[in-house]
Amino acid sequence: MVTNQQLPGLRIVGLSGGIGAGKSTVAKYLSDSLPKPVLVLSADDEVGELLNSAEVSVQVAEVLGNHLLGPDGLLDRSAVAGHIFSDEKARKTLEGLLHPAVRSSIFNKLSALEQSGGAVWALLDVPLMHENGLDRACDFEIFVEVSAAERCRRACQRHGWEENEWKSREKAQLPLEKKQQAADAMVHNEGALSSLPEQLAPIVEQILSLAPRPLRDRWPA
Q: Cα–Cα distances in Å, from 57 out to 12, 48, 50, 182, 189?
C-alpha cells in the first residue's frame, strides 16, 4: 500500500513565532526527522543574499540614500537596520523592494524541488510569513513559543542589538497571538533542547499523514 509520504509532490510546513524563538533550531530537528529530501528555506538567508548583491544595493541606495553603502559599494546591514527600524516609512519602502524578490526566490526553489519528482518536503522559516500571505502555501504550521524576555535575550545576544531594537522589530510583525491562533501545533522552545524531540514526535506523525498538493494550487497571488 502506498502511503501519503511515498506519493510524489510537495508538503510544505511553515514555522512561526517571535524574533528569537529559535525557529531555525526547530527546523533543523524537523529536517532530521522527515524523509529526505527536505528543503529548509530561510527568509533571513534570502534577504542576506539580496543585501549582498550589487544590484539590490544600488536600488536601495537610490531610494534610501547612499549613506547606507559601505566602502565596498554594498549595503552596510547594520546601517540599514538602524535606519529602517527608526523610520517606518523607510522600513516599508525597503520591504517593498525586498519582499517580491524573496517570494520569487522561494517560489523558484520550491518549483525546482517539485519538478525533481518523488515525495519532497519543504520547511519555511519566514518571519513575515503571514504578512506576505505565504501561510496559504503551507500544509501545516507550527508556532514556536518562547517568553518575551528569553526571546529578547537571545536576539540581542546573537545580533548585538539593544532591547529597543528588538522591540521595534517585534512591533513590525503580526501580533504573536494571531500567529499562534493560526497554527496547527505549538512547541515550547525555552528550556533544554533535549525536550524538542519529544515534543516534535507526535507533530511529525501528523505531518507524515499530509497529502501532497501542487505548488500552483496553493501559491498566493
A: 31, 11, 8, 35, 36
